[in-house]
UniProtKB/TrEMBL annotation:
Lineage: Eukaryota, Metazoa, Chordata, Craniata, Vertebrata
Lyase is among the record's keywords: no
Protein keywords: Membrane, Transmembrane, Transmembrane helix
Name listed for the protein in its UniProt record: MOT2 protein
TM stretches of this protein: 12-35, 55-75, 82-100, 106-127, 139-160, 172-190, 240-262, 274-293, 305-325, 331-353, 365-384, 396-415
Annotated ranges, domain Major facilitator superfamily (MFS) profile: 14-420
Length: 448
């Protein structure tokens, strides 16, 4: 039985976990993406400035990223199931307490801090456990799970608007909190995988015929201990650092296009109703991009890191072309290209992280990556806004995002070269020698 469980099943109950993760993505990140519908309602209720009200979403996003290492650490010490259930309870509590709407500080603490903590504790283990259940089909499984964000976001827009019109923004928050309580149900379905993930790890680079037994014992004895602690020392590994820098630069770009797409549309004189359709196009092609790229990655025709380089290059190209649009049709086409290639990138970037650090360190790596990447998300929009103010044109923001993505692709190239050199060095050191004995084999045969 132990031998059977030593590798990820790559199917079976794993698909139940994927569907559960799909639902968790929808009930967490999709809620965050459509929370802007409450912005005006809350602002008018408290009679506050837009900048003051926007801190609710800012706090949620900040806690979502900052709490990721904590969520990963808890996954390592306990189980992914337990952390997801905790996240569901926190997300529900944040919305339910927000229903009372006492003052703006109360909103920061409830729908901001507690909700952000709930999203982080739900999202991080959900996406992590999918990678544990799959190896060969990991890219496809991650793509399907992450697509829940797009599927739910496209439905939540009109649904949340209807809830607000029927029950007011406070009543809508309470109902959404009730929906998020279902995260606990899907968390229960995330059954811990009784696998020895450390068996996936490759043999020691310095393995020799005499050292094989020692290497195997070393794995069996030490790996379980590693899995019980969060590995902060990943920041000392060059490959992780390079991937983290890519993540920072990519995050600086990813938050910019959705921010300036609507203002750019207005500046071109496009009607509000047509502008709203651009966001729908963005969500639909994003969904398609995730599924198609996940399917292609599952064929293992292209190395994951190379596929990621391609998608990043295509996103940057589409962002550089998008400002050339001068009417609705051209803007919709370029928006579609951007959304599709964004979806392809999201589909494989978690799989690429697993390939870079290996599954034994994946939980720790995911938490650290989310934490480090958050700096790009915080810096990118203000920097793009500054550039737009200086240029006096919203197009400048898209050029900035495209250029930053090109720079991020450069770090992926460096990472790939580093891994190739490391692999060649390992192969050179571990080449089996024809004879490890002090005498030639024919000498021994002669004297037997």
């Amino acid at each position: 039985m132990q031998a059977e469980d030593s590798n990820p099943p790559d199917g079976g109950y794993g698909w139940v976990v994927v569907v559960s993760a799909f639902m968790v993505m929808g009930l967490t990140v999709a809620v965050l993406k459509t929370f802007g519908l409450f912005f005006v309602e809350i602002q008018q209720h408290f009679e506050e400035l837009a900048s003051t009200t926007s801190w609710i979403t800012s706090v949620t996003i900040a806690i979502f990223h900052l709490a990721a290492p904590v969520a990963s650490s808890l996954c390592v010490q306990y189980t992914h199931r337990a952390v997801v259930i905790t996240g569901g309870l926190l997300a529900f509590s944040g919305m339910a307490l927000g229903f009372f709407g006492l003052n703006m500080v109360w909103m920061y603490a409830t729908t901001g801090f507690i909700q952000g903590l709930g999203i982080s504790f739900s999202w991080t283990p959900a996406i992590s456990i999918v990678s544990h259940y799959f190896s060969k089909k990991r890219a496809l499984a991650n793509a399907i799970a992450s697509a829940g964000e797009c599927a739910f976001a496209s439905m939540f827009g009109p649904f949340f608007q209807w809830l607000i019109s029927q029950y007011g923004w406070k009543g809508a928050l309470l109902i959404i909190g009730g929906l998020q309580l279902h995260i606990c149900v899907f968390g229960v379905l995330m059954r811990p995988l009784a696998s020895s993930y450390h068996l996936e790890a490759s043999y020691s680079e310095t393995e020799t015929p005499a050292g094989k037994g020692a290497s195997r014992i070393d794995k069996e004895d030490k790996s379980p201990i590693i899995h019980k602690t969060f590995n902060w020392m990943l920041v000392r590994r060059p490959e992780f650092v390079l991937y983290a820098i890519f993540g920072i630069l990519a995050a600086m770009s990813f938050f910019v296009p959705p921010l300036f797409l609507v203002p750019l549309s207005y500046s071109l004189g496009i009607d509000e109703s047509w502008t709203a359709s651009l966001l729908s196009i963005l969500a639909m092609v994003d969904f398609a991009g995730r599924l198609l790229c996940g399917w292609y990655a599952n064929l293992h025709v292209t190395k994951t890191i190379h596929l990621l380089m391609m998608t990043i290059t295509l996103i940057s190209t589409s962002l550089m072309l998008l400002p050339l649009a001068n009417n609705y049709l051209s803007l919709a086409i370029f928006t579609g290209f951007y959304g599709f290639f964004f979806g392809t990138t999201v589909a494989v970037h978690i799989t690429a992280l697993a390939d870079v650090v290996g599954m034994p360190e994946f939980d720790s790596a995911l938490g650290l990556f989310m934490l480090i990447r958050s700096t790009g998300g915080f810096v990118g929009p203000p920097l793009a806004g500054l550039i737009v103010d200086m240029a006096g044109d919203y197009r400048a923001g898209f050029y900035m995002a495209g250029a930053t993505l090109i720079l991020s692709a450069g770090f992926l190239v460096i990472l790939d070269r580093f891994q190739q050199r490391k692999k060649k060095g390992s192969q050179t050191r571990t080449k089996p020698e024809k004879s490890m004995l002090p005498y030639p084999s024919f000498y021994l045969l002669k004297h037997q």
